Structure formats: C-alpha cells, structure tokens
Amino acid sequence: MTQATDTQTASALSVGQVAGRIGAAMRALGDGWIEGEVTQVKVHRPSGHVYLTLADESASLNACIWRGRVARCSPLPAQGELVQAHYERVGFYGPRGSTSLVLDRVRPTGDGELLRRRAETLERLREDGLCDPDRRKPLPAFPRRVGVIAARNDANIDVIQALRKRFPPQHVAFCAASVQGIHAVGSLIDALGRLQSVEDVDVIIVARGGGSVADLLAFDDERLCRAIFACAVPVITSIGHTKDRPNCDQVASAFAPVPAKAAELAISHSAAELLEELDRHRLSLRRGGERAGALRDRIGELWARVRPLRMLRDIAEDIRRHGQLVSSGGERGLLRLDAEMARTTRALDATRAMPTQSIELLATRLDSVGARVEGKQKDLLAAIDRRVLAAEADVRTYVKRREEELIRGDERLRPVADRVVARERQRVDGLMAVLRAKDFRRNGWTVATNLEGKPIKSVTQLAVGQELTLHLADGKARVITEKSEKETTDG
C-alpha cells in the first residue's frame, strides 16, 4: 500500500507543468474568426495594449490586442457593438490560469451580413407557415387589459401614454424588458410569458424606438419570432423609425411604426369615437323607426286600395249603371210604341165621319199601319232582348276581369309588402344588435359625468364633495367625491 502511494506521488506533475501543457493545447487550436458583442473595452495606458471582452447569450471570452496590432484594428470597437474578430491564437497566462484571445483584426458586423441572416430566418419562418396572414390571431375590439413590453425609459413609455390618451379608463399591464444586447431575446421571451399569464390581458404590445440593423438584431431572432407566434394572445409589434421591418413584424398579429398607431390597433375605438358612434346609432334607430312608421302607413294605404269589399262595391256600381242603361233603352222604345198607337186611334176616330169608300180606304191604311206597328214592336222587343243579353255578358266579363285583377294585385302586392316589412324589421333588429354590441356599459365599462352630463376625463376635473353620475350597464348611480388621487405609476 505504501509503495503504490509513493509511485503515484512520483508520477504527479507540477502546476507549472500542467499549465504548460494547457498553453500548448491552446496554441494548437490555431487561429480563426469569432463574432460577439463587445461588453467591455479598456486601453491600458502604460503598455498601450487593449483588453476587451466578447460575449453572446451563453458565454464570454477575454481578448487582447497588443500594442503593435492596435493601429491595424483601428478604429477600436465600442462597448455594445457587434463585431467580428480574427484571433491569431488562444493565449494562456499560467500565473493567473486565464485564457485570452490574441486579436489582430477587428471589424464591425456589417448590415449586409445581418440583412442576409434576417432574410434566411424569414424564409424558414415562411416555410413553417408563421407568416401566413390567415393564421394570425385577430385583435380584440374591446380589450379588458393591454400588456406592454418595452424598455424602462421615457421613449417607450410613450406607448402607455398613447393608450391612456386614446381611452383613459383602459387598464394597462407593463413589463420591462431588455430590447438590445445579448440578453434581449431571453428578456423579451420571458416578458411575453409573464404577460400572457396575467388575468384579463387580451392583447400585448412589444415596443422599442428605432435603431440600426444591429441594434434591432434581437427582433430578427427566430426564437423570439416563434414565441410571438405561439403567444396565447395576439401581439402587436411597434419597432419604430426604421425602413427595414424586423422579422417579428412578419409573424405578429399587427405591427405599427409609432406608439400612437400601436394604441389605435390595440384599442380600435377611442372614448370620443364610441360616444359619437352611439349617438349615430341612436339617430339611426330613431330614423329607422320613423321610416318603419311611414312604411306601415304606406302598406295600409296599398292594402286599402286592394280590399275586396271596396272592389265588390265598385263592381255593384258598374252593374247598376248597366241596368239603368238597359232600362232607359226599353222605356224609350215603349214610349215610341205608345205614341204610334195614339196616332192610330186618332186616325180611326176621324174616319167615322167619312163615307164608306173613304172608310174602307182608311181601314186598309189602318191595317197597313197596324202591321208596321206590330213589326216595329217585335223589332224593338228583339233589340231590347239583345241589349239586355249583351249588357249581362258585359257585366259578367267585367266582373270576371275585375276579380282576376284583384287576385293578381293581391298576389303581387302581398309578397312585396311582406318582403318590405321583413327587410325593415331585420334592419331595425340589426341596428339594435349593433347598438347593444357597441354599448360600452355592457362590456363592464363605466363612464362618470358631471351634473351637466359632460364626461370626466381626468382627476384634475374633480373636487371634494363634487356630485358625479356613474353610467352602468343596468342604470345610473349618483355619487359624491370624497378624495381624488392622480396616478403616478408606470403601468
């Protein structure tokens, strides 16, 4: 047992020997290119060497530029800049056990290279269907709460101000995140996860100001784009002041170039627009009621014109007129016959005083006159019969024609009247449905007005003891202000 221990001790290497082997192994790695963000940069004044740190999301490495290589690497990179660097070797400093990349060339990662990577990422997203407009989640018309992801600075808090200006009662949930640098992607994805778990958040806005292609690199990242697409609620991206839209805009439900536009997308109707639209619908309903009343009166008039009772009365009047015509024709014929008989009687009386020859002659004439009278009587009676038959036929034809017209008129008018009434009723029902849908009180919102009926938009309009009216879904409530407090928090 002792001999084995002595053998192991004799074969152990010194720290310096192990350090030498590590240094040799590092030098054997050779040269190469590396890309990362410059997180630290320092010029050592006595020696003139430059020390810097290159990092990404998973690791960081120390690097140095010896004084003789500084001119070749000028201009020196700035902190936060994305660069590509060529290292001659991997140095190992034994006294401290540290490694360092020895750089001889440094260049910023160009926009052309970043745009090429953006295009490649976008192509993969399109192949997977993440850019299909039909697969985007629809934006809610009246979100209960709007989530906002932005950096904690005045430029991006403008989104919240735009939301409050558009609709003062709007609830907002703010989640700060890093929007640039090596930790931006993870920070943004984490904020998305936290906000979509907040109760009543119906839409999320991801906002940041403008910047270069390198500044917006996080918003081109495939992981962030897939997280936005998979988010349980619709996401609006507002990466402003840039012509080249980042990839996240292609997978979001909507994108906006400025905060004010993002607020319009998140809240489709402002408070003033809602009140104006309610007034328009109220006016439309009143006008629709007036039009429905006028239409009802018009239908009544049309129905009165085609009522069967009135039609039958008209037919009876026509029959009565035809009967009068027939009766008057027969009476005139009988009057003519009576006149002829009277003339014959007078002639017979005059012959009584005449001689026999004259009487015979007169008798002959009387017979002839009687025959003519009898023939005229027969002709008159036949004419009367013909006129009566013709009048009866005309009356029957007229009655049948009017009946057919009545039936056709009723068949034509009734469907038209039914369609008009049904269309107007459907229109009125639609207007009522729209009014109910647009009624902000039915969605749980409350509007406070002063005694003059004007809406209260700010706590600066309130005074202690001031009477207010609260407009709720099922009525109104009169309240008195005891205390008002201006909101000073971010969200």
Overview of this structure, please?
Helix content is 52%, strand content 18%. With 491 residues, it is α/β, with parallel strands linked by helices. It folds into four domains: 13-109, OB fold (Dihydrolipoamide Acetyltransferase, E2P) (Beta Barrel), CATH 2.40.50; 114-268, Rossmann fold (3-Layer(aba) Sandwich); 280-438; 442-480, no CATH class. The strands form three sheets. A five-stranded mixed β-barrel has the order 1-2-3-5-4. Strands 7-6-8-9-10 form a five-stranded parallel β-sheet, sandwiched between helices. Helix 10 packs antiparallel against helix 12 (356-438). The longest helix is centred in the C-terminal third of the chain and has 83 residues, at 356-438. The two termini are 72 Å apart. The model has no long low-confidence stretch (mean pLDDT 78).
Query: Helical element count?
Result: 12
Radius of gyration: 53 Å
The string of secondary-structure elements, in order, is HHEEEHEEHEHEHEHEHEHHHHEEE
> What does the largest sheet look like?
5 strands, mixed, barrel
Going across the biggest sheet, name each strand in turn: 1-2-3-5-4
Total count of domains: 4
Class computed from helices, strands and strand pairing = alpha/beta
Average residue-wise pLDDT? 78
What is the number of E strands?
13
- The residue ranges in which pLDDT falls below 50 over 5 or more consecutive positions are none
Query: How much helix, percentage-wise, in residues?
Result: 40-55%
Q: Could you tell me how far the N terminus lies from the C terminus, measured between alpha carbons in angstroms? A: 72 Å
Beta-strand content: 15-25%
